[in-house]
Design brief:
6-stranded mixed β-sheet; 3-stranded antiparallel β-sheet; binds adenosine-5'-diphosphate; binds magnesium ion
């Protein structure tokens, strides 16, 4: 039985002025997938996520999320949860952890309405899901990078999404924290039946956790289990000589030869 399509991109092209960001991207993400999206800096990863969110309109091509163009999702838009790239935001403003998570509810309740007891319950549950309930009254700015990241995931979960998009969520988290972070994603996926796309630079760590890996460098090279991607020579095409350590864990180590 084939699984329902959650995201479908056909021949998607995006450019910003003279810069080509995405070129002829085709992509199919099925219900329940846990996909790692890797690629070097400037390869279009954030742009691709923003296309799925409907925040960037392609110059050409078709985008469908849950069977409709993302800007037709309307009131159902909250079924996409989004954790933006942290380096793109300012997280030093004075706001409590609870306030941040409640922001995830405003898509449903409207900005100027008061949150109901259900909204509060969902927010508390989202903090419990990421094991941050003890920090509810703390200021976001006081937390470590890893803790802030979990709060941002709680905010995305508070929208009660079916699809969770995370843009470089592990940046600034140490290796131990990163392992735990992927364990958390895996648990959320299983408990809540989420489809998850996680954008990262870190091929080594992500390969050990996701079911599928897609490599982006303007165009999308492969979308397959990590072991297949890593042996297919795809990474060399995508990264050129940047890659040294490719993978660990259940995937064989391999080192790209030095380029002259
Ligand atoms: P990544 O997330 O993989 O680092 P991005 O999607 O952020 O890559 O960027 C891809 C390319 O598009 C880069 O060359 C970047 O400079 C350019 N770009 C992205 N967003 C914009 C924008 N809003 N205006 C102009 N250029 C952009
Ligand atoms: Mg990016």
């Amino acid at each position: 039985m084939t699984r329902a399509s959650v995201v479908k991109l056909e021949d998607v092209w995006v450019s910003f002025h003279e810069t080509l960001a995405l070129k002829a991207v085709n992509m199919d993400i099925e219900d329940g997938e846990f996909l790692g999206l890797i690629g070097p800096n400037g390869s279009g990863k954030t742009t691709l996520i923003r296309v799925i969110l409907g925040l960037v309109k392609p110059d050409r091509g078709r985008v469908e999320v849950f069977g409709v163009p993302p800007d037709s999702l309307g009131a159902k838009h909250h079924i996409i949860g989004y954790v933006p790239q942290r380096s793109h935001g300012d997280w030093s403003f004075p706001v409590s952890v609870t306030d941040v998570v409640m922001m995830g509810r405003y898509g449903r309740i409207g900005l100027f309405k008061r949150p109901s007891s259900l909204d509060r319950e969902v927010a508390v549950k989202a903090l419990e899901d990421v094991q941050m309930q003890d920090f509810a009254q703390r200021q976001l700015a006081e937390l470590s990078g890893g803790q802030q990241q979990r709060v941002l995931i709680a905010r995305a979960l508070a929208t009660e999404p079916k699809l969770l998009l995370l843009d470089e969520p592990a940046a600034g988290i140490d290796a131990y924290g990163e392992e735990r972070f992927y364990e958390l994603l895996k648990r959320l996926k299983e408990e809540q039946g989420l489809t998850i796309v996680v954008v990262t630079h870190d091929i080594a760590v992500v390969s050990a956790h996701v079911e599928k890996l897609a490599c982006l460098n303007q165009t999308l090279y492969t979308h397959a289990p990590p072991s297949e991607v890593i042996t297919a020579g795809t990474l060399e095409k995508v990264y050129g000589c940047e890659v040294e350590l490719l993978a660990h864990g259940r995937i064989p180590h391999r080192v790209v030869e030095e380029h002259k």
